[in-house]
Amino acid sequence: MSTQILLNFFLAFIWMFMTVSFTPAGFAIGFLIGLGIIILMRRFFTGRLYLTRVWAVISLFVLFLKELILSSVQVLSIVLRPNMNIKPAIFEMETELQEDWEVTLLSALITLTPGTLVVGISDDQKRLYIHALDFEDVDKAVSSIKNTFERAILEVSRP
Amino acid sequence: MTIANILIIVSISVGVLFSVVTALGLVRLPDVYTRTHAASKSSTLGVLAILTGTFIHFWIVEGIFNTQMIIAIAFLFITAPVGGHLIGRAAYISGIKVSEQTVRDDLGPAVQRKKKRFALSKKPADD
């Protein structure tokens, strides 16, 4: 992926040298033309086209903002309720993520969405221990995390 | 200009609302873990909204494009979850009990197993 981005920058600089226009506009035109060349040449690269990964990162960010706002409102309703009838719990979740940065990103995202807080990670990084503010059902809680954040991170890291 | 003003007022009000909810949650919630929920996250969203409002104000009303606000938001997003995680983990490992309302605890047996393993192997527990 980084090879493709670097190649794109390289092609943009080539374009700037060819047209002798060392301006941001010249760079932008060269970058777009280089992008076109990379899309045409995509079968020579081993990985995916880097645009799909950039798109996956953007959609992960949008998903994160949506979850942050939704669950903040949920915590607001819990805190402002007259008799606070919450059921906190610590549950275990198996993760299929492998790399260090993926597990770190997943636990940061889980921690930043109110309602869930990572309080422990097992030594082999296979299981996360998550403290939930208002807990109903372990399958429901696990599947809601798996279907949103883990799937989005897998989409980013897929080769 | 009016649309910008409405945007500024709404985002700063939302930020103040979430900060108040954080303070209320710190008082009302039963144990350290549930309080960490309020302290580490509703406050993140609150500060985020206030910083966004300030950024929009200085950009549109005063005409200053201050990128330090964006950097501050990014740093907040990086550091807040780590802080929340470490407070919760340190509290659990040092033996703070969860409140009576807690319905399920999977971490307790795991910590017990780990402590037993370290006691057997005579290695210093590094966690």
Tell me about this structure.
With 159 residues, chain A is mainly α. Chain A has five helices and three strands; from the N terminus they run αααβαββα. Chain A starts with a helix and ends with a helix. The model of chain A has no long low-confidence stretch (mean pLDDT 84). Chain B is elongated, with a radius of gyration of 21 Å. Chain B starts with a helix and ends in a 6-residue tail after the last helix. In chain B, 27% of the residues are buried. The chains are: A mainly alpha (159), B mainly alpha (127). Chains A and B meet through helix 3, strand 1, helix 4, strand 2 and strand 3 of A and helix 1, helix 2, helix 3, strand 1 and helix 4 of B. Strand 1 of chain A pairs parallel with strand 1 of chain B, so a sheet runs across the interface.
Features:
heterodimer, A: 159 residues, mainly alpha, three-stranded antiparallel sheet, elongated, B: 127 residues, 77% helix
Q: What overall geometry of chain A do the principal axes of the alpha carbons give? A: elongated
> What number is the mean pLDDT of chain B?
82
Report the biggest beta sheet of chain A as strand number plus sense, adding barrel if it closes: 3 strands, antiparallel
- Helix coverage percent of chain B: over 70%
Shape of chain B: elongated
Number of strands of chain B: 1
Series of H and E elements of chain B: HHHEH
